Every structure is written in structure tokens, then in C-alpha cells.
Amino acid sequence: MKIAIVGGGAIGSLVAANLVKSGQDVLLVGRPDHVEVIRRNGLLVRSAEGEQVVEINVATKLDQKHDLVIFAVKTQDLEEAYQDNCQYLEDCLVMTIQNGVQADNMLRTHFTSENMISSIVMFGATYVNPGEVIFNFPGDWVVGKPYSANDQKLKDVVEILNKAFSVTVVDNIMGMKWLKLFVNFNNCIPALIGKSMQETFADLDFCKLSVMLLKEGVGFVQKAEVSLVSLPNFPAERILGLASMPTEKGAGIIHDTLTRLSEEPLYGSILQSIKRGKPSEIDFINGEVTYIAQSMRESAPLNRRVVDLVHQVEQEGKFFSIDKIKKEFNL
Fold first, then answer.
1. The dihedral formed by the CA atoms of 21, 157, 270 and 232, expressed in degrees to the nearest 10
2. Which of the four pLDDT bands, split at 50, 70 and 90, describes residue 297?
């Protein structure tokens, strides 16, 4: 199976490296600076086990058809990625890998339901520099068909992915994507101050803010009667429990979990985009809650404010001080 990965960020690059190491025929489509370094030096992957350079075929656009195309760009870049490569996307299988819940809806206008596969990554990676990524922590790769029943096409893809990752096939991938949205819900806070997850959540005030955002977000999703479906090895009760317990207690759990998540500094997906000078996926994470609130003619003030502040960081290229954010949210 010829595989193309469109998007050379942290996850896309790591997926390409692991698939290549498992013997697969892979092309990684990325930005020119990333492509140039990988073509010259290979991709440097750092992890707790050490460093490894992986030789990967790279390009800035597709130049032929592939059997499977994995879209690894952020949700806000999906349409542009499709348009840039559409002449080679006829009749292929496509897989989404984005955070949030809108990626499949966006690509559905271009592909048949039978050829679409949705997925959720529970492993973590960080884009450091062109040609260099960190594999922060392992986890499952959860896959399923978003708009049709799981079939032989999915089984064929899973057989290949299983050679490089721990892959789990599920029936209700969309319900799980809603839960994963809340797993990523606190990525916005490090993006406001420009700090790693470990540095950010070593401060209990920011742990409290994380719980406050989560409580507001889960409240609106439940009001909209959206079901949060448990992920393999990550029950929905973890998120629902955090949202229902006292803020101080929840903050302690956030602190203990996120400060120990990785030995290497871990930068959330939103901050990684900002560091690369690109718009982030904030509108498809915390922003998703604000859209639900608006549809009910209500407001989600905490999440609305954090979305606006992240956009301000994107536009001005300047992070806020810790004191500014604490004052903003009365911490």
C-alpha cells in the first residue's frame, strides 16, 4: 500500500517515521523548510530511548496517486491541503487525524463515505525544528469509519498501521472524538503564556483555570445532549468526574497528571502552531463550545475569552505574562 501523509508537523512526521521503520512505502508532504532538511539529513526523532535519524521520502505536494492519504494538517488547513493536492486524491482512501470534531465533516464534501476513515491519536509528539521532532509519550491510535460501517478497507489499513503503532478499531469514533476534544481542552493555557505543559500546570492557579474551562465546556455539551464515549484506556468518567468535582480537587489531579506526562518538555498543539507562526486550532477546540453555546442563544464566557486571547497571541506574536492571565480570570 502506497501511503502519503499530508502535513509534516509533529504527529504527521512521527507517523511517517514509524511507518517507514516498519517497512512501508511512505511519502511525507510538508512545508519547504521541513522538506529540505529531511531530504538532506533525514528526520531526527528524539525520545526517552534516545535519538534516531529516519530517511523519509518527502515533497511539498503530492505528485502521484496513493492508496491511503493521511491528512495530518490542522483542521483549519484541511481545505487548502485538499485543494493543493486534489488532482491526485481521486479514489484513494483518506484518513483524518485532527483534534476536534469537524475534520470529517469538512472532507465529506470531497470524498465518499466508503473511502473515509477517522482516527484519534493518543500518543504525543512535539515539532522542535525543521527536520526534528520529539516522541513525548506512547498511546493508542484509535480508528473507525465515521459515516459507514467498518469494512474490509479499514481492516487492510489497520493491518499496516499495526506494524508501527498500537491500533484499536472502534464503532463509535465520532462520540470518542468529542471526548478527545476535552482531553485537548487545556492546550489553550500554555499557548497564552508560551510555556510547556509541565511549566504551566506546575502552577495550581492554571490547573484551576483548566478545570473551570472544562466545567463550562462539558456543561454545554451535555446540555446539547452530545454523548462523550469512552476511549480505549481512557474512560469518559475521567473527564466527567473532573467536570463535576470541586475545582480545587480537580486542579490537584490536573497538576499531578500533566506535570508527569513526559520527561521532555511537552508543548500543546495550539502552542506548537503559534511557535511555527501559524494559526492554531483554537476555534475547533475551545471554540467548539462557544459555537454550541451560541446555537442555544447563550454564552460560554470563559471559553470565549480564552479563544479571543489565543487569537490575540497569534496576531501580535507576543505571549501574555502570567500575572496578566491570572488577573484576566480572577485566579
1. -100
2. very high
